[in-house]
Amino acid sequence: MDAGHKLDITPKTKVGELLAEYPQLEETLIEIAPAFKKLRNPILRKTIAKVTSLRQAAKVGNVSLGEMINRLRREAGLAEAPDLSADSSDEEAVRPEWADDSIVVSTIDARPILDAGEQPLGKVMSALNKLAQGETLVLITPFVPAPIIDKAKDKGLKVWYYHPEEEEVRTYFMMSPQN
Q1: What b-and-e string marks burial along 62-73, b requiring 16 or more CB atoms within 10 Å of the CB?
Q2: Parts of the chain belonging to CATH 1.10.3910.10
Q3: Which is the CATH superfamily of the domain at 1-88?
Q4: Quick one: CA torsion of 139, 145, 147, 151, rounded to 10 degrees?
Q5: Taking every pair of C-alpha atoms in the chain, what is the biggest distance, in angstroms?
Q6: What is the mean pLDDT of the chain?
Q7: Which of 26, 122, 160, 164 matches a 20 to 30 Å C-alpha distance to 2?
């Protein structure tokens, strides 16, 4: 990209890149979803924002990807993007049979980790790597942990989440039995 062109804002744009190029959009992100207030924490900004795409951020904020992208594009002086509404969700209306609290072998509450300004990715991925086939782990966060969900899916784990309370998301990860 030459010096005359600004960063394009797409679902793949990392939050950190967006805020480096358009620092004025921090307030817009927070208006779109109050969960983004955590971006004000310098440690989270250096870690989570660096790896989180706007597609993942929309899941974290529980907002429409298309609405978020187009609002950010308008605020940055860019033309609106084509229809982005066909975004899928991992959240299902019906709890899968394997997401049963009676068979959970481990639970990680990442809220204290995040409140301390730390990134829980390493601890969570380490715990997920230790799951045996058929075992389930629950991760508790104040928002949908989209980057962790994507990494877990890349490793072949089953994932399901729900919001039992406004500031609480419970994400279930299961190491799929080999077929």
Answers
A1: ebebbebbbbbb
A2: 1-88
A3: SP0561-like (1.10.3910.10)
A4: 30
A5: 57
A6: 84
A7: 26
Nearest to 150, CA basis, from 66, 87, 59: 59
Q: What is the pTM of this model?
A: 0.62
Q: What is the DSSP letter of 143?
A: S
Rounded Cα distance, 160 and 156, in Å? 13
Question: Per residue in 123-161, pLDDT tens?
Answer: 999 999 999 998 999 999 988 888 898 889 989 999 998
Per-position DSSP letters for 80-136, written without gaps between them: PPSP------S--SS--TT--GGGEEEEEE-HHHHHTT---HHHHHHHHHTPPTT-E
* CA nearest to 58, candidates 83, 43, 26, 36: 36
Range from 47-61, 62-76, 103-117 carrying the lowest mean pLDDT: 47-61
Q: Residue with structure tokens 């207030």?
A: 37
Q: Which of 138, 125, 155, 152 is nearest to 56 (CA)?
A: 152
Written as six digits, the tokens of 177 are: 């039995």
**In a 3-state reduction of DSSP, which class is residue 149?**
helix
Q: From CA 173, how far away is CA 157, in angstroms rounded? A: 6
CA torsion 148-99-134-114 (nearest 10°) is 30
Strand partners, 140: 109, 170
